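Researcher: I've been going back and forth with a colleague about how Pirin might be arranged in three dimensions. Neither of us has a model we trust, so I'd like an independent prediction. The organism is Pseudobacillus wudalianchiensis, in case that matters for your notes. Sequence below.
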Amino acid sequence: MRNIFESWKVKFNERGFPHIQQAFVLPPDKMYEMDPFIMLAEDWFKRGTFSDHPHKGFQTVTYVIDGRLEHIDNKGGRGILGPGDVQYMNAGAGARHAEEAVGDDIVHSLQLWLNLPAELKESKPFYQDIYAEDVPVKKIGSAAVRLFSGEGGPMKPLVPFSMVEINLPANETYTHELPNEDTAFLYVLGGQASFGETKVILKQGQAANLTKGTAFRIEALERTRVLLYSGQAHGDPIVAHGPFVMNSREEIRQAFQDYQEGKFGPPAN
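Model: Here is an independent structure prediction for Pirin. You can compare it with whatever you and your colleague have in mind.
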């Protein structure tokens, strides 16, 4: 059985306009112990916060909680995501895009960064939009489990991982199965529950990483909504700086040089 290894309360920072509020649900300084996960950021923002910018060497998963998010990339891609929608991006060898609020909307989003193994750092960038209505919901007893990635979910990441959202009524229990050696963490989006055999109680705005094991027990103390992520560690060296995640400082320097020389292509607009 899995248990809570470590938990923490997410610290929210008031940023002002247009980046209203920001938090690191999974702080970047945990990337060395949470392989393949680099960070999970939670943001509330208006248009003008995430205009044209580059990425290289990792994957992102952007989950729209509220508002409308417009995606623009420099390969001609454009689309709008609404509440419950998700976008997967493989930045690979170098992507350049913008993620902007539509009109006067305030977007509330969660963006996960996942490392790529060394042999895929130069892979071809691509995007996948996943709409809420296309995400299967698995009913297991009283639990409703939304399957975004893994376990039959519609996301097609370059490197497989699992992302599920578990909705559980008050006073109900659910046990989620995970690969034994996967790195795993959770974020409580709403409510309050006890987790694992040790029954650690966490509530909205708290996150935790899990011990190894296959089964993870959740008992809702009130109506609860939890995001649970798991993935297999790569074990490669990791160096992150700004929008680039590589295996060495020299590769980071090269990424900045390639971007400055226009090798990522024109601006996204």
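Researcher: What would you highlight for our discussion?
Model: I'd start with this: The mean pLDDT is 96. After that, consider the following. Residues 249-260 form the longest helix (12 residues).
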